[in-house]
C-alpha cells in the first residue's frame, strides 16, 4: 500500500470512528472490553484447508492457552517458511487471566473473519491485542499502522493541560525500561483537585530500549493526535498509550 493510500484509509477510519463511536470512547466503565479497530497487513492470500490455514488455526489456538497466565504470548507454527505463521497476543497489564483468554478467543475469531484468507492481520480491543503474519516480526518495532482516538471535549486551559499530559506520559515511558511487563500506569495532579491518569504498554517481544523508542515516538504524536483533548490514545502494532481525567484501570481508583 502506498503512503498516499495509507493516509486516505487512515483519514476515513478516523472519520468513521469519530462519527460512530465517540460516546463509547468516553465511557469510564473499565469492565467494557470494547472493540477498537483492525487492519489486514498482507496482500498475500491463503485458501482453506491448506498448510497455512491449518498453521494459522493452530497458532491462534496456542495463544489462547499460552498468553492468558502472563498476559503475553508468541508462537511460530510451521517448519516450511512459506507456510509459517507467526503470531502474538498481548493483554492489558491489569486484565485477569480469565478476561485475557476470553478476549484473545474473541479476537482470534474476529480477525479471521475481518481478514478472511489474508496472511497477515492485527486486531485491537480494550483488553487485548492480537497479531499474526507470514513474516517473522518478533523483536521489531511495527510502525505500519497507528490509530489516534480522542475525547471530543477540550481542556479549559489547553497550554497547561497539554504540558501536564506530556509530562505524565514521558515519566511513564521512563519507567517502562525497568518494568518486566513493559506496562506502566500512573497519575498526576491536574489543575485544582483533579487528576490526570495515564497508561503505556509495549508488546513483550521488544527489548526495553525498543519499547522506549516506540513509546517516545508515539508520545511525540500528541500535538497531531490529541491537542487540548481531555482524553486520548495512540494505538500501534508494538506499543500504545492512553491518558484520561478519570481512572483507566481499576488499580487507579
Automatic annotation (TrEMBL):
By its UniProt entry, which Pfam families does this protein fall under?
Answer: Stress-antifung
Keyword Transferase found? no
Q: Which UniProt keywords apply?
A: Repeat, Secreted, Signal
Protein origin, superkingdom: Eukaryota
Q: Does the keyword Glycosyltransferase apply?
A: no
Locate the Gnk2-homologous domain: which residues?
34-137, 143-248
Gene3D superfamilies tied to this protein: Gnk2 domain, C-X8-C-X2-C motif
Single GO cellular component term: extracellular region
Give the primary localization class.
secreted
> What start and end residues bound the annotated signal peptide?
1-26
Provide the family line. Answer: Belongs to the cysteine-rich repeat secretory protein family.
The protein's name: Gnk2-homologous domain-containing protein
- List the top taxonomic levels of the source: Eukaryota, Viridiplantae, Streptophyta, Embryophyta, Tracheophyta
Amino acid at each position: 500500500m502506498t503512503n498516499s493510500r495509507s493516509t486516505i484509509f487512515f483519514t476515513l477510519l478516523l472519520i468513521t470512528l469519530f462519527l460512530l463511536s465517540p460516546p463509547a470512547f468516553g465511557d469510564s466503565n473499565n469492565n467494557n472490553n470494547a472493540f477498537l479497530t483492525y487492519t489486514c497487513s498482507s496482500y498475500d492470500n491463503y485458501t482453506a484447508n491448506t498448510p497455512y490455514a491449518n498453521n494459522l488455526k493452530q497458532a491462534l489456538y496456542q495463544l489462547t492457552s499460552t498468553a492468558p497466565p502472563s498476559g503475553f504470548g508468541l508462537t511460530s507454527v510451521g517448519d516450511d517458511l512459506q507456510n509459517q505463521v507467526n503470531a502474538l497476543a498481548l493483554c492489558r497489564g491489569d486484565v485477569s487471566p480469565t478476561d485475557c483468554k476470553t478476549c484473545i478467543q474473541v479476537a482470534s475469531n474476529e480477525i479471521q473473519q475481518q481478514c478472511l484468507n489474508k496472511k497477515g492481520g492485527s486486531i485491537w480491543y480494550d483488553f487485548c491485542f492480537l497479531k499474526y503474519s507470514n513474516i517473522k516480526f518478533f523483536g521489531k518495532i511495527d510502525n505500519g499502522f497507528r490509530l489516534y482516538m480522542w475525547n471530543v471535549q477540550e481542556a479549559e486551559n489547553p497550554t497547561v493541560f497539554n504540558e501536564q499530559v506530556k509530562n505524565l506520559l514521558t515519566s511513564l515511558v521512563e519507567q517502562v525500561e525497568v518494568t518486566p511487563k513493559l506496562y506502566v500506569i500512573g497519575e498526576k495532579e491536574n489543575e485544582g483537585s483533579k487528576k490526570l491518569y495515564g497508561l503505556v504498554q509495549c508488546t513483550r517481544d521488544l527489548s526495553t530500549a525498543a519499547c522506549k523508542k516506540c513509546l517516545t515516538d508515539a508520545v511525540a504524536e500528541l500535538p497531531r493526535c490529541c491537542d487540548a483533548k481531555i482524553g486520548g490514545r495512540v494505538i500501534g502494532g508494538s506499543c500504545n498509550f492512553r491518558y484520561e481525567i478519570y481512572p483507566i484501570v481499576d488499580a487507579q481508583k
